[in-house]
Amino acid sequence: MPENFSLGLVGHPLEHSLSPRIHAAALQAAGLKGEYQLYPVPPLPGGTKALNELFVRMQKGTLNGLNVTIPHKQAVLSWLEHLTPAAKAIGAVNTISLKSEQLAGDNTDAPGFLADLNRLGWSVLRDGNLHALVLGAGGSARAVVYALARSGWNISVAARRLEAAEELVTAIRASAERTRPIRGREPLIALQLDRQSLARLTPVPSLIINATPLGMHPFEDTSPWPEGLSFPSHAAIYDLVYNPPETKFMKDAKRAGLRTANGLGMLIEQAALSFEIWTGCTARRDSMLTAVNAAWAGNI
Ligand code: NAP
Per the omega criterion (within 30 degrees of 0), is the bond before 71 cis? Predict the structure, then answer.
């Protein structure tokens, strides 16, 4: 184990990232020395040299772990020598470590989401209607769909570009069906994110997940839920957005009597799982959450 952990996050832009504070808290709580730095690297091809340099540092052991965020979650795949089954199926990596001298990629968004959903323990999800509606078809939607599919959920993926939803469904279908066949209706379907398509959706979803940036700064006044469409009466809402802590989507759903949660729990879980991959030590989720709340109280 290194005496001093050198960890970091590569992406662009990174100014508002909470990760340095979250990981500093985890290091301290685990009694480990180290640092977590931000590496702002522009999209490829401009960022190629900078990414190369970071991976050389990882191979030399002067950098012990990297998180990856937009716009590099897919781009880093070509550098990696080993991928976990989750990273391979999702087609995106958010955690890089060195395993047996090889650069290894993992995706902790998927188990992070699932862990937070289980933590919430919503009763509405225990009545056997495992039908989720995922809004959006980008990188995080892929992780969420992969996690739910492996847990036996039927999933509808709605995106403003139908072809993006179809592509996601095709990509996840093979891996999910291999691991856990789902009986009944077609377990994974794609649809257009619009009022007509969502109004016709059967069975009624018990879980609706926002995996678009709508509701997040600077889109605070927007919601992915189509205007004028009523919410299913017995559904729970999970918004991957965590800043602001209550999005317009969450507020509207709450007003309609639905349970809601933001993505802060997932943010903490995915970070904790990355930390455990790099250090082999248990991550203290409570300390990590306290660090986020302290940062928000100071209005970072
Ligand atoms: P992404 O890969 O860029 O995907 C965004 C998705 O949202 C795409 O399907 C995109 O459609 C869609 N979208 C964007 N603007 C839209 C609009 N105006 N109307 C309808 N759909 C729209 O982003 P991502 O990485 O999946 O992240 C999505 C959100 O999740 C972000 O807010 C991010 O901060 C959050 N997130 C949270 C966590 C967590 O731990 N809580 C983890 C990961 C991500 P197009 O392809 O057509 O543009």
Answer: yes
